[in-house]
Design goal:
23% strand, 3-stranded antiparallel beta sheet, Arc Repressor Mutant, subunit A, globular, alpha/beta, 2 domains, 269 residues
Length: 269
């Protein structure tokens, strides 16, 4: 016999207590905890948001007071906007990242506009490439790379594979290098907009020998609602400018190798 359904009022009471305790919740996790569908859970969050009891985010919700005093990004820009923002810096970062690669390696490419630029550069290198991004997989198709994708639910406008099935599949592999995209970096760590995408990023980091974050300097001292990794969880940060002094000190203390991408001349292309 299946467990009885939890009444809406009880679900919402539990949600508010969890947000008060933790500051945020993720739809996927809370739906499992309350033994309800993600669709029902989203309706609960929308109801509570309309009553100003929480603030909705992509993939979850946070407490209204959680935003106080923080420079935090709640809304993820469209793919087209993110692709054109700081495009030259992203290309520089991707070129620098490509210099880490050796034929025969097994790598993971996370979803993101900078990782997509890297995908464009690896087509002529015989690599085993794992990615949850349909866009990246399509870009590398019919190249020297062997492409692998996990199972799972297709989500988002980019789009990508997410969910427990995706994480389970990724946990069966080990990567020489995982290249990770994030939306922000503060002294607390690396952040992203989406709870669902963040869970995938965490799995890639955990299953890699070397974890590399690709991040342009516009994202310094910025936060989003989901913590991807603490400083000490990341091995290398590739960016286009030296981070601000305090941020740089924390990176150094956490043993993160900061690599500043340089402009590549036409002779080197």
């Amino acid at each position: 016999m299946s467990a009885p359904k939890i009444p809406a009022a009880k679900r919402r009471e539990y949600i508010l207590k969890a947000i008060q305790r933790d500051g945020f919740i993720a739809v996927i996790d809370m739906a499992k905890t309350l033994r309800t569908s993600e669709m029902t859970l989203r309706r609960d969050l929308n109801f509570l948001a309309e009553n100003e009891q929480l603030t909705r985010t992509h993939g979850g919700a946070i407490s209204p007071g959680h935003l106080s005093g923080l420079d935090i990004d709640l809304v993820e820009p469209s793919v087209s906007k993110r692709s054109t923002r700081h495009h030259d810096a992203k290309i520089m970062i991707a070129r620098t990242a490509s210099q880490m690669l050796l034929p025969g390696q097994t790598i993971a490419l996370d979803i993101g506009t900078t990782t997509f630029e890297l995908a464009t550069l690896v087509r002529d290198i015989p690599l085993r490439v794992f990615t949850n991004s349909l866009k990246i997989a399509k870009r590398i198709n019919q190249s020297k790379c062997s492409i692998y994708m996990p199972g799972g639910q297709i989500n988002g406008t980019e789009p990508s594979l997410v969910g427990s099935r995706t994480i389970k599949d990724l946990n069966d592999f080990f990567f020489d290098i995982a290249f990770i995209g994030v939306s922000g970096l503060s002294i607390d760590g690396f952040y992203d907009y989406s709870f669902e995408d963040t869970e995938i990023k965490k799995a890639l980091i955990a299953r890699s020998k070397t974890s590399v974050v690709l991040l342009d300097s516009s994202k310094f001292d910025r936060m989003s609602v989901a913590l991807v990794a603490k400083m000490e969880d990341i091995d290398v940060l590739i960016t286009d400018k030296q981070p601000p002094e305090i941020l740089n000190q924390v990176l150094e203390t956490s043993n993160v190798c900061v690599v500043v991408a340089r402009t590549i001349t036409s002779k080197e292309l």
